[in-house]
Amino acid sequence: MPPVHLPPGYPPPYGPPAPPRGSTTRSTVIGIVVAAATVLVFGFCACLGVAGWLVGAEGRYSGDPYAEEPYYDPYDDDEEPEVGGWPTAESTPTLRPAQTPSDGPGKVTVVYEVTGDGPADLEYYDANGDFIQVERVKLPWRQRLRMHDDNRVMVLASNSDGEATIACRVTVDGARVAEDASDWAVNCTG
């Protein structure tokens, strides 16, 4: 058929655009890969959630002494003291300190020493890893323990009167691992 000529002033006829040339297979493969990766990530997160739920609060960390608060400090309470006032300071520990671990002889010998003038308030870990507090101890003070774990050795000391110098030292099997001196409080952690 010969070409159709339009009258002057009319634009040429428009036809639909040609379909884009390209591979629909490629975009389908990319979509499948992205969907599979998303499913794998969500599946991994779901497995972590289920594992956390199974371990839960009663799981393997429930009896861990390191995860619990080491002691209760009544001075942190916001309540007013009873009519008799604050308890008087005594030189008795909060717990009876263990010299050797309750499950057998310890592997290392730990010596805590605190020196200075006047009474001091002490806090330290005993052979079982229990946190011990003793108030108004006469100085010099020395405690020799047999322990399994030499990573949990610590003694904190502060002047009860706040007027004298104080020093502490920790040795493990005769080797000094920590030493500190101050006018008010010291921290020896090994």
From TrEMBL:
<feature type="compositionally biased region" description="Pro residues">
    <location>
        <begin position="1"/>
        <end position="20"/>
    </location>
</feature>
<feature type="compositionally biased region" description="Polar residues">
    <location>
        <begin position="89"/>
        <end position="102"/>
    </location>
</feature>
<comment type="similarity">
    <text>Belongs to the MmpS family.</text>
</comment>
<keyword id="KW-0472">Membrane</keyword>
<feature type="compositionally biased region" description="Acidic residues">
    <location>
        <begin position="68"/>
        <end position="82"/>
    </location>
</feature>
<feature type="region of interest" description="Disordered">
    <location>
        <begin position="1"/>
        <end position="23"/>
    </location>
</feature>
<keyword id="KW-1003">Cell membrane</keyword>
<keyword id="KW-1133">Transmembrane helix</keyword>
<dbReference type="Pfam" id="PF05423">
    <property type="entry name" value="Mycobact_memb"/>
</dbReference>
<feature type="region of interest" description="Disordered">
    <location>
        <begin position="68"/>
        <end position="106"/>
    </location>
</feature>
<dbReference type="GO" id="GO:0005886">
    <property type="term" value="C:plasma membrane"/>
</dbReference>
<dbReference type="InterPro" id="IPR008693">
    <property type="entry name" value="MmpS"/>
</dbReference>
<protein>
    <recommendedName>
        <fullName>MmpS family protein</fullName>
    </recommendedName>
</protein>
<keyword id="KW-0812">Transmembrane</keyword>
<feature type="transmembrane region" description="Helical">
    <location>
        <begin position="29"/>
        <end position="55"/>
    </location>
</feature>
<dbReference type="InterPro" id="IPR038468">
    <property type="entry name" value="MmpS_C"/>
</dbReference>
